[in-house]
């Protein structure tokens, strides 16, 4: 299952480091090319020779031991990895990578890595629940790290509690599930809109909203990671767009309408995460407006509802809308789904802490024609993006199967 996959396995200094050997062996047996980085403390618990023998590669411990002059080892390891797995991950290593420290081979490689990361923590229960560790884990989650939660059982310190490293078999399953995602949307075209629109009054003034674009970007990134060909139509955003997608920049609702409708026929899934202005100034002045009098009345007119337009035109495309609400979330979400002929609506209560614009987390509920499909807890926007696209891929598959009469 893992043939052709390049995995960096980071082993840090906890008693569970010995399980790193079993994990390494299972990953290699599943076909992965595994390069092991150990911290110095990990090397006190288990011999690097064991990992070298199991991985069939030299083990990296010292950042300055450059064996191959043609490359810089930590950059090369980071660049080649499809996934970095850290198991066991101690509180110390979690703290270092959450805060961007780079004082050993593993933390330095982590800082250079752009690939996904899977972390399997293992430590004493009080350490695991310490607010500093909790915050560091949250920071990593907000940046999109995936986790294999520790199990509950006998800890080395004598406690019977949560903190014990997940079993190597379960970590391998998580690794396999991550790579299996890569095919979910293979061959599919996904169009995502993100950010807020800008409706100009004059050359220097405009109406806009607080959307950061982070949710739409996370969805685009998730769709690309699942193998889709992604077009991202972005208005005003405050976040860095993901790599590997076609990025089209627009300003106004009108420009977004044109960019989306001209591509609609060729795509399989549309996700309308953008916060599109509902109204624009009737008149857009070519020259800067001069102040004149004590008050100014702006006349606004409705923009075209892009989602509704797509809902009327759709021919088999899966259409996903967003509903930002502050009350009666289910009622308004279902109303939007029906009115705009959507297949899914992602709704959030933007007044809840940890949800909505600008932050790195969101709390959403997914609705389909049948009603509530799933209520997600507070998750990183990346994790929410992954879940939305998993459900989208499931729905697309069922729709295709129905189309074939299965
Ligand atoms: N949307 C759109 N075109 C518009 C306005 C909104 O495509 N001109 C899309 C958004 O991208 C989002 C969904 O519609 O997917 C949000 O619906 P909307 O009815 O605009 O939400 P609210 O403004 O929150 O709704 P309401 O004013 O009905 O409370």
Explain what the structure shows.
The chain has 406 residues and is α/β, with parallel strands linked by helices. The protein folds into 2 domains: 6-181, 3-Layer(aba) Sandwich (Rossmann fold), CATH 3.40.50; 189-403, CoaB-like (Rossmann fold). Helix content is 35%, strand content 24%. The chain starts with 5 loop residues before the first strand and ends with a helix. The mean pLDDT is 94. It binds cytidine-5'-triphosphate. Cytidine-5'-triphosphate is lined by residues 253, 272, 274, 276, 278, 303, 305-307, 321-324, 336.
Overview in brief:
The chain is an alpha/beta fold and 406 residues long.
Question: Keywords, please?
Answer:
406 residues; alpha/beta; Rossmann fold; 2 domains; 8-stranded mixed beta sheet; elongated; binds cytidine-5'-triphosphate
What is the architecture of the largest domain at the second tier of CATH?
3-Layer(aba) Sandwich
Bound molecules: cytidine-5'-triphosphate
Mean pLDDT: 94
- Within the largest sheet, what's the order of strands? 12-11-8-13-16-17-19-20
Percentage of helical residues? 25-40%
């Amino acid at each position: 299952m893992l043939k052709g996959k390049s995995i960096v396995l980071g082993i840090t200094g906890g008693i569970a480091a010995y399980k790193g050997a079993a994990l390494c062996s299972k990953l290699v047996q599943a076909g992965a090319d595994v390069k092991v980085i150990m911290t110095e403390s990990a090397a006190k618990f288990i011999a690097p020779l064991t990992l070298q023998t199991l991985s069939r590669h030299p083990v990296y411990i010292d950042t300055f031991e450059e064996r191959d002059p043609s490359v810089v080892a930590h950059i090369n390891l980071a660049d080649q990895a499809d996934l970095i797995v850290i198991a066991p991950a101690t509180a110390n290593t979690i703290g270092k990578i959450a805060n961007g420290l780079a004082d050993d081979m593993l933390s330095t490689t982590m800082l250079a890595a752009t690939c996904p990361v899977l972390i399997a923590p293992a430590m004493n229960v009080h350490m695991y629940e310490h607010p500093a560790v909790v915050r560091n884990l949250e920071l990593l989650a907000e940046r999109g790290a995936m986790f294999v939660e520790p199990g509950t059982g006998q800890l080395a310190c004598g406690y019977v509690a949560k903190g014990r490293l997940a079993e190597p078999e379960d970590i391998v399953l998580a690794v396999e599930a991550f790579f299996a995602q890569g095919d979910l949307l293979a061959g599919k075209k996904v169009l995502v809109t993100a950010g807020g629109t800008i409706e100009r009054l004059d050359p220097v003034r405009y109406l806009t909203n607080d959307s950061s674009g982070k949710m739409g970007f996370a969805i685009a990134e998730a769709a690309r990671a699942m193998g889709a060909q992604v077009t991202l139509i972005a208005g005003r955003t405050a976040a860095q767009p993901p790599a590997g997608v076609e990025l089209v920049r627009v300003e106004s609702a009108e420009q977004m309408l044109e960019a989306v409708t001209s591509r609609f026929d060729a795509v399989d899934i549309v996700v309308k995460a953008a916060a599109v202005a509902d109204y624009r100034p009737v008149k857009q002045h070519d020259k800067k407006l001069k102040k004149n009098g004590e008050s100014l009345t702006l006349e606004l007119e409705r923009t075209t509802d892009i989602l509704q337009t797509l809902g009327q035109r759709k021919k088999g495309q899966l259409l996903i809308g967003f509903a930002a609400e502050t009350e009666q979330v289910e009622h308004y979400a279902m109303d939007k789904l029906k009115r705009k002929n959507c297949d899914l609506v992602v709704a959030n209560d933007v007044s809840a802490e940890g949800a909505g614009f600008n932050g790195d987390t969101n709390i959403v509920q997914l609705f389909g024609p049948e009603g509530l499909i799933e209520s997600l807890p507070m998750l990183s926007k990346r994790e929410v993006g992954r879940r939305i696209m998993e459900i989208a891929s499931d729905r697309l598959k069922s729709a295709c199967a129905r189309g074939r009469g299965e």
